[in-house]
Structures are given as structure tokens and as C-alpha cells.
């Protein structure tokens, strides 16, 4: 396709699809016209992929996820189709910068954080690998809330991505399922039949996901809740207009909004309804597809794999058993074994408060037949392996992790350390009973979005050095190592980073009115705000550094900008206090005439995928400072390393593997290990001991406690100071001293720009293993036992 072909297609869509004259088109019209022109290029590979998968009788992979954090889709599609240059030229002809058009697209925030973004990377990789697959989730009307700051405090506003038109989804009025709730179980001809009391309709919306080089496209199918009955005409006729639309409002509530908690389940009835709603619709859809091709249910495990992204879709176990046994007549034990053959479960956290449990009462009221089946599954499992401590039902609750474990043939963790800890802690008993079930699949990220799309400067440099094979085979980045002794290469590497940083500086100036120095080190921590992620450790270090610079303003300080981004769950009070503290510290430090040339703090509001794409390529240092044992993997850590930002981090999650890959000299390690953290906590007064041993820490905490950052309002941040000097569960104080030491090593390393660029480039060269293509190959080999439907040559 030439740029004039693309331009013609854009103009065609502008006129005939959008009904706009070029003379009156606004940016949104151009964005839609371009999207439609690009979408036309996706349709054939998409249809071809469907046809190939049917013809080849390939096994299909279904990725069930409550969240798909897809962000913007237009640039990604253009990049994967190899049309980036073409699109640039087309818009040069049309007199509008392509970037203006691309940034008009809403960011679809249908997820909270890492888990949802991982699902989006996996779906893209499965398309790039030409594996027949489908993502199943919920088409939330409102994604993750929009964050703003008022006097430093987080304010939430509803997100409304669907208010803006977009071109990616196809409504499927014919793909609908009736989903029931409540009611009772009756016996008919010796069989149990669930007779739900309430119901609603799940309707499909399909988004094609095009893979690298446009060879293959899979579908992301999101379910929207519709009422079975739009309108109560009797009520309307009798004048009760509000009540007349009640059934509609009630049904639509199910897909109305994404729950904004990343690691604390709300235990709300609506949440369980959402989980069952999308899981039941997805299973029935997949089973319908299977039954259109095969007539022997025993083939199901050979032809269908369901991957459960955490326990949110864990009701898939009992629901699939119900579909196979109650509705299709397979004997119960065969139904359980067949379901298990199809199901596998990925665990994403060990935090005890994050593990989903539902009261038996609620489960029985909403899903009475499922509760019976869960009891039956538990009984069968107990009979097979008589052990009391490994049941899904316990103390009047259904434990969804145990249920998913028992009903999956494989259970995986998301980094080597996390998988080991799963075996030793939450699933200790179940692991003893099923020693081959738990396996590791370390997370990965898609290089198309996170390097090629987000960092064109670096990508051009890489391709100039080693050719363009790296995009589809990221381990080829190791070929960069031979270029690292070439001063010209390192200069160009530095220039790419510098270009990305000046772009960011301009953007921050325009959007926040803050002036940043592009020569300063950009030290970045972007992720959900959580005590275990320890943004408060980072800001404490900033406070201590500020105090030290004030003591000694003429020393040779390495200029730094600490950049934060991230949302706190609306109900997580302490996380919100951390945000408030960071903003208050930023106000004081940035206004300090003595220190602000060496140290600034910026908290960018409304962190999302789009902002990550802007920030990561412009970063010098990646903050991955969670309490060891608490971060299951992390995926931001991988994006930073790939984009040439070395890590300062603990031995937690995938940091451990990143450090092994990039080399211990190219990673700033600090802090206690997971067993050391556990031992340290045994000391009741670990925080007090750490504070007594480090005057810098004591002084920084004093400034948090007094009114240094809350002029006229002493005590505003006392809660944080009290927590840290008191029980300090996440051992911030005990890791502070070593964190400070590592940060000063970072300062010294950054001061040597030649050495720093080499270290940064080594991070890029040695991070190719962290591609989500590699993760997907691991799942294909060890869990799904299938592979691509196309060979490397596209046949
Ligand atoms: C989430 O993003 C993660 C775990 C969760 O546990 C829930 C959510 Cl929303 C229920 C994250 C982990 O915290 C992170 O370490 C990991 O990299 C990511 O999932 C993907 O595995």
C-alpha cells in the first residue's frame, strides 16, 4: 500500500463512512477515517485466520480475563501492519501531523494494572505467533476512573471512553446468551436442572487484534449486559415511567463499571455477578463453536484450552461441569475430568487479603446449582486425596484459589520467585497433593507496543545495527552487544534517550507547567499506589536527599527528577495519603531555590497506558522497590529494561530474573530478601531499630511528622509517620539505609555518562527474553499443548 492509496482510502471513509467534507473535518473525523482505512487492512487477515483455524481443526486458546487494559489501538495496528511510514506520508499530504490524529483516540482503560495489561500483551502475542485464540472479557461502559489532584489529594471521576466514537468494535447482535441468576435446582428424570429466577442477555462485541506483520488476527470478544425485557409496558402505561425502565437499568448495571481495586476484592454481590456473567457467556460461546465442529465431548480437552486469568473466572470450573453433566449428560466424574483437561489457572498474587472468597450463603443464593457442584468437586477431591486442609469450601466460604487449583490441570505463577513462594505458602498443601501441577511462566511484554511503537528513536537505532528481525524475535537484541564498544553507537543511543527526554520535558511543561532539565536523571516509579510497592520509601529518600542538599548545597550533586504516576483504589485510605504526601513534598521541593536545580518531584495525574508509552522511553532509572516476596512479577520493570533504563530494585518478582539477564553490574540491588523480610518482622521493633541506626531516616520521618510539607496544618501526614515508625509491615524503615546507599551508587554511575549509556544499552541488549512471545510459547508448550496455525513462512 502506498501513501496515496492510504490517503485515498482515508478520504473515501471521511466522505462515505463519516459523511464529512475534508474542508470541515475535525481531528476526530480524521482519526476515525484513518481507523477505518486501517481496519480495512485488518479484515482479510482476520477472516483468513478464522478460516485457517477451522480448516486446520486447530486447538483454540481462550484467555478468560476480567480485564483487558488495551489502551489505544490505532498506532499499534498501524505498526503491526507495517504502515507507519505510509501513514506519516499520507498525513503530510493531508496537512495534519499523524501524532495529532493518533493522540485523539481514547485510551481504553478496561483494567486496573499489570494483570489487565498482561492480558492485552498476551492477546497481541498470540496473534503475532498465529495461534488461534480469543480473549474473553467484559465490555465495561466505564473503565478505570479518571484521576486528578485537588490540593494534592486524589479525586476520582468516572471514565467514559465509549462517549468518544471509535472504530474497533463490531457489535454482534446474533451472538447473545441468556445468563441466569438465583432460582432453584429441581430434579427432572433423575437429573438436576437449574431454574434461575432472574436473567439477562450477554451480547458480544468483537475487536480484531492484528499481529506483527499482519499475518494473523485474533478476536477480543467483550460481553455487554442487556436486559431480557427492555421495557415494562404495563408500568409505563400506568404512568410509572421510572419503574418502567427498571429492568433495563438493573441488567445494564452488570457491565457498567470496572471495579477499581487491584488487589483487594470487594466481596460485593455485583462483582460475583460480573464474574459469572462473562465466564458463563464465554464458555457457552466456546462450546457452541466446538459443537459446530465436533460431536464427541471427550475431544474437548484436545480442542479447547481455557486459561483463567486469576480467580475472577474461577466459576468456570463448576459452570463447565454443569454444562457437561446437567445439560449434556456426561457422567459427573467424567464431566469433572473433562473440564479439568480444558482448564488452567494463573495466580497473580500471594497477598492474603487479595485472595477471593465468597460466602457460601451468597454463592447458594446467586448460583445454587454451582454451590452443589462445588460441594461435589470438593468431595471427589477429598476422596481422591484425603486431606482436610486443601478444600475449596471452608468456614462457610468458597475459596476461589483452591477451586481454581483443583479444577485446573496446570496452575502457574508469573515469575520464578513467585512460583516458588506459591509452593511454599498459599498452595502448600495442594502442591504436596499435586506436585506436578504448579509450574512457572514468567511474564513478558509485547515489543511491538513497548519498543517499536513507543520508542521509534531507539527502534531505528536497533534496526540500523542488527536489522529488523528483533521485533518478531526479541532475543536478537543480544546482537547489540557487539556494538557497545563502538562509541558512535553509544552516542546514538544517548541521543535517542535525550530526544525522548526532551519530548517529555516539552509535554510536562505544556501540561503541568513544570520546567524540567533534560540533563537531569529521570528517576521513574509508575504503578498502582500500594504500600507493598513502597512509593513512600521512594519519597522518604527524596526528603532525606533534599535535607542533605540543603545542608551542603555546594557539593557535586547529580541532578535528578523523581517522577511518579499511579492511581490509588478509591477506598484505600493509606494509599491516598501517600499520594497526598508526594504532592506536598513536590510543592516544597520544586519551590526551593537552593535545591530545585538538583532535585525535583513530579506526580503526573491519571497514569494510564498512553502515559506509560510516553514516560518509559524517556526514563533513566526504573524504580522496582517492592517489599521482597510481595510483587508477583511486575511487567513495567521489563518495559524499562528494554527501553534502556537500568533498575534500582529488590530481589522481588521478575526483578530477580531481570538482574540475572542484564548482569549484576547493570542492576542496582538493595534490600532484604523475602526470607530476611520474614525474619526481620519477627523483631517487634524493627522499625524503631532501623530509625535509631540511621539519623537520615529519623530526620526524614520528623519532616513527615511535623509541618514541613503541610504548612499551617501540622499532623497532616502524621499517619504515615506513625505507621512507618510503628508496625511498618512492609519494612520501609528496615530497607531505607540500603536503598539510600544504592541511590548514591546510582548518582555516581550516572555522573559518568559514558559508563551509564553502556549500562543502559546493556539492559536493552540483554532483555529480549522478556518478550510476551516467549511467555506465550511457554504456555503453549507446557499448558495448552498446541502451537501456531501458520509456519514461519506464513503457510
Ligand atoms: C494485578 O494487576 C496483579 C495482581 C492481582 O492479583 C491483581 C491485579 Cl489487578 C489479584 C499484578 C501483580 O501485582 C503484578 O506483580 C504482576 O506483574 C501482574 O499482576 C501480572 O501478572
From TrEMBL:
UniProt keywords (A-Z) are:
Allosteric enzyme, Carbohydrate metabolism, Cytoplasm, Glycosyltransferase, Pyridoxal phosphate, Transferase
Please classify the protein's predominant subcellular localization into one broad category: cytoplasm
The GO cellular component terms are: cytoplasm
Location within or outside the cell: Cytoplasm
Q: Which residues carry this modification: N6-(pyridoxal phosphate)lysine?
A: 639
Requisite cofactors: pyridoxal 5'-phosphate
Q: Which reaction does it catalyse?
A: [(1->4)-alpha-D-glucosyl](n) + phosphate = [(1->4)-alpha-D-glucosyl](n-1) + alpha-D-glucose 1-phosphate
GO terms of molecular function: glycogen phosphorylase activity; pyridoxal phosphate binding
Q: Which residues form the signal peptide?
A: none
Top-rank lineage group of the source organism: Bacteria
Similarity remark: Belongs to the glycogen phosphorylase family.
Question: Which NCBIfam families would you find in this protein's record?
Answer: P_ylase
* Function text: Phosphorylase is an important allosteric enzyme in carbohydrate metabolism. Enzymes from different sources differ in their regulatory mechanisms and in their natural substrates. However, all known phosphorylases share catalytic and structural properties. Allosteric enzyme that catalyzes the rate-limiting step in glycogen catabolism, the phosphorolytic cleavage of glycogen to produce glucose-1-phosphate, and plays a central role in maintaining cellular and organismal glucose homeostasis.
Name-wise, this protein is Alpha-1,4 glucan phosphorylase
